Every structure is written in structure tokens, then in C-alpha cells.
Amino acid sequence: MRLLHTSDWHLGRAFHRVNMLGAQAGFIDHLVDTVREHDVEAVVVSGDVYDRAVPPLAAVELFDDALHRLAALGVPTVMISGNHDSARRLGVGAGLIDRAGIHLRTDPAGCGTPVVLHDAHGDVAFYGLPYLEPALVKTEFGVDKPGHEAVLAAAMDRVRADLAGRAPGTRSVVLAHAFVTGGEPSDSERDITVGGVAAVPRGVFDGVDYVALGHLHGCQTLTERVRYSGSPLPYSFSEAAHRKSTWIVDLDAAGEVTAERVDCPVPRPLARLRGTLDELLADPELTAHEEAWVEATLTDPVRPADPMARITDRFPHTLSLAFDPERAPDDPAVSYARRLAGRSDQQIAEDFVTHVRGAGPDDDERTVLRDAFDAVRADETLREVAR
């Protein structure tokens, strides 16, 4: 069976101040063409269809158009909700849409109930594991201390139990939306840390033929059987080195996997430029970036006059301008933001405790801080769901 694996469309999202709806519509055109031209037999979409729980109307219309076009091809599509989606809203009408070959899996209780498709070699069971927010699904899965690994492990136990009761030779595909150990994140993914831990081990998914992951925006191969498709479009300058693509996955009669990447159309390349303003304006090697979306970081010791106007004369699509004066590490003018770069909320809070009282927090205090951050994240998730 030939699958197309995609995820993280984030319909309705902008890139800095640029409306991306036209580029997202271009991706849907590309998706439909790819399904047709590559003789794809099933499409899997591993979450974050929308960028937020209540998407703009134009994004909903684009999603509706995508569903109609995929259904018209007669190619089944299996889709799960991600951490940006409202599972309830995305899943409205799922029972009716099933009849058109569009299978929306947004209810955690259905993790062990697959969509079963058929090819010349027999059955392929597709198990949709929507994004599982530990605090919201701990009762459903009977876990005492909710965490991403615990709830995903419980969901995969249901998958393996169902698969064990099926005919020998049944192949299996799992869709999941999670941060799996070994994956490389970017700046555009929402933090899903719980209990100080965001990642889950790859071994959680043992026992199935292919795992189609969503959440991380870079296309990645963790193992031959466990892959991220990444987002089809860039949503932060940290993705400047990404090659945006989808996976075409062939699952043979024995469940062996071969895969190839199909590049997605992107409206403009991204460029991250760094140097003094005069250097950026004069360097001939930067000519290739003059039509790119640009993030420019100026290192001038003194902020130059009219920097944005001057840099857009050469790079008209500059979207981000930052200042990072080159100073000695012990210079008191080094910015607070620079000192915090790369540090987690937990580390920043612990540093503050140390600064205020002269001694860092003990283990119990670290737990209190971690629980507080987890409670805030869970509350934000609940508010999104309630909207």
C-alpha cells in the first residue's frame, strides 16, 4: 500500500506579518496533484490541521475544499487532531464524513479502533492517536501520574491488543502527534512539556509497521519505521535550513517500509543574516538572498539610523530585524534576553530563586515550580478546548 504522510498544515497561520493562506492553498493543490500523480492509496495527516482552536473562516473554507478534493479522488484519508486543534470542533460530523472516505480521529477513547483499508496483500489497520494532553486524558487511560510517555504507552497498549486479535499478516500504521526522543524541534512548535519532560521514547511505538508522526516541523527519520513529515510550509526563521516535503511511503506485503520525499512548493526561501548594517548592504555573496524572506541581526556596537528602511532597500522582504551588538561577555550591557537564550522556564525560575536568596531551590521546591508550570500549561489547553 502506498501512503502519503503529511502533518502540521497550521491553516490560518501567518509567517510574521505575511498572510500564508495563499501559500497554504498552493500546498493543497500540490497535495492533490501528488496523490494523483504518485498513485497514492491512502493519505495520513498527523495533526495540527489548524493553527488554533477557533480558526478563521478562510482557513475552515480551505480545509473544507481539501476534504472535498481528496474525497473526489476516491483515496481514503485518515486524520488526527494535534495540540493546536480543537479536537471537538475538528471531529464534528466525523461519522458522516467517514462515508466519504475521510476518517477523522479526534477522540482519545478510539485509539484502539482502527480504520481498516485493503490492498492486494490484505488488510492495513490505521490507528489514529490524537494529541493526548496528559492532564485531560489520565482518567481515560487509567494512569496515576499523567505524563506524555504514560498516556501514549497506554494508548499503544490498546493498539497492540487490537492488532493481536486481527488476522495474521495484518499490517499496521499509527498516526500520533507528539515529541519523540531524537526529534529536532524548531521555534514554531508550541511547548508541550509536562513534569519537566516533553519527549517520549521511540520504543513506545514498538510493534507496528509504520508510525506517521506530527508536531515537529522538520522532516525527520527517527528510524525507517518512525518518521516526521514536518510542516509543508515554514512558520519560523529557525526552519530556514528545512527542506519542506511530504513522505511517500510504500508498505509491502510483509510490512517492510520504503520511503521517498516529495518537495512542497514554498513561496520564498528563508535567510538568516548577521553582521553590521554596512556589511549586510555591501556583501556581494548575499545577492542570492535579495528575494528571500529575511531575518537580519545587526551587530553594530551602536544602533544605526533608520536600519529597517536601509536594509529593505537591498532586501525588500525583510520581516524581522534584531540587534545583538558584539560586546565582551562580561560587558554589563549584554542584554537580559541574550542571557536567557536557550533556557527553559523552569531554569529561569530556579535562577531567580538563587538570585533572590543566594541559594538554589531544593528538590521539593523544584517539584513545586514544575507543578506550577504544568498547571499553567494545562489551564491554557483547557481554555483552548472551551473556546
From TrEMBL:
Residues in Nuclease SbcCD subunit D C-terminal domain copies: 267-355
Matches recorded under Pfam families: Metallophos, SbcD_C
Keyword terms of this UniProt record: DNA recombination, DNA replication, Endonuclease, Exonuclease, Hydrolase, Nuclease
Gene Ontology BP annotations: DNA recombination; DNA replication
Molecular-function GO terms, alphabetical: 3'-5' exonuclease activity; endonuclease activity
Calcineurin-like phosphoesterase domain mapped to chain residues: 1-218
PANTHER family named among the record's database cross-references: COMPONENT OF ATP-DEPENDENT DSDNA EXONUCLEASE, NUCLEASE SBCCD SUBUNIT D
Family of the protein in this entry: Belongs to the SbcD family.
Summary of subunit composition and partner proteins: Heterodimer of SbcC and SbcD.
Function, in words: SbcCD cleaves DNA hairpin structures. These structures can inhibit DNA replication and are intermediates in certain DNA recombination reactions. The complex acts as a 3'->5' double strand exonuclease that can open hairpins. It also has a 5' single-strand endonuclease activity.
Record's protein name: Nuclease SbcCD subunit D
Gene this protein is translated from: sbcD
